[in-house]
Amino acid sequence: MFALSVLRTREAPTTSKGAASANEAQPKGSSVCAAPHENPRRRRPDIAVTSPVPPDAGDPPGGRTLSDVHDEITKAAEETSAGPQPRPQSLMFALFGSYVLEEGLGHVYSGSIIDVLARAGVGEHAVRSTLTRMVNRGLLQRQRHGRRMYFGLTPQTAEILMDGKRRLWQTGAVNEEWDGTWTLLGFSLPESWQRQRHDLRSRLTWSGFGALYSGLWIAPGDIDASALVSELGLAAHVKIFHARADDATDIGLMIRDTWDLAGVGARYAEFEQRWSGWPGTGADDPLGVRLRVISEWLDTIRTDPRLPAGHLPPDWPARAAQETFHRIARQTDAPARQMAGELLETAPVQVP
């Protein structure tokens, strides 16, 4: 039994009609832009887009919500976790998150995306197919200039990649500063709302929650879950509490019953095994290495709830894996950034 003392209850705010409409707005899949900025340090010949997609083919009916985009990114992570070689879509997210979103670039020329991802082991056909698929799914938007096609982030994808950036660089994999507080979220949805239930569970998992009981989820720390609940339009069906466990509660047992510690630990151990020996193969290509290690690390931490360190095994593999990730990230940062600056050709975002 989980006995608790409630500190406070938070009602999830309802989303206004105007805000909901803004979240569901979908940029046009293709447009004509102003003259692109071609990197003066590297001028490459024009490459015609193979099998160009009709201008509006990528616009999903009714637009894409933030939850739709989050679901697509989660699917890419699940595919990546099946093996050591990241999927093209996960590498694409690493590229756009690191060198488009972070550098404030607009749209990136497809030919230069092909050049960059080739360094991470992705062939041209796979890159073109992935770009087309991501536009069709509302993950990227495109604009044409002459014979060239440029790709950029949709607002929804940019928001999720910003959250991923915080998880990568600001939130540690080991929770050493837990203050004993838990966030509990209870919900009751109509039986027919299977998609809404799936979306809520997916977002809760990304935010560190685990299912304590059916319809009652829990996460360590003081988590502001009201925003994600409101974005999903489920505020009327959710109650959020912040509490501390009673002394009668065996927190260690509760953690083992609620989360798959063995699975989370195995992913960290696999990451450490693959990367602890670097530099090795590919050490002479810091950009390709950096994209791969960021992609794999983000997929590794995606389902980690950051449980209190005091309730985890003393040899918890996240510590060593995190040290390895940060070491490689430091060593590849400057040379990879220089290479990306030389390779990526961009065009400004067209203002409607």
UniProtKB/TrEMBL annotation:
Q: Which InterPro entries match?
A: PaaX-like_central (IPR048846), PaaX-like_N (IPR012906), PaaX_C (IPR013225), WH-like_DNA-bd_sf (IPR036388), WH_DNA-bd_sf (IPR036390)
Domain named Transcriptional repressor PaaX-like N-terminal is located at 87-154
Q: Where is the Transcriptional repressor PaaX-like C-terminal domain?
A: 259-339
User: What are the Transcriptional repressor PaaX-like central Cas2-like domain coordinates in residue numbering?
Assistant: 176-248
Question: GO terms for biological process?
Answer: DNA-templated transcription
Residues of the region (Disordered) are 1-67
Q: Which SUPFAM superfamilies match?
A: Winged helix' DNA-binding domain (SSF46785)
* Pfam families xref list: PaaX, PaaX_C, PaaX_M
Q: Which segments does the entry list as coiled coil?
A: none
The protein, known as: PaaX-like protein C-terminal domain protein
Read off the lineage from the record. Answer: Bacteria, Bacillati, Actinomycetota, Actinomycetes, Kitasatosporales
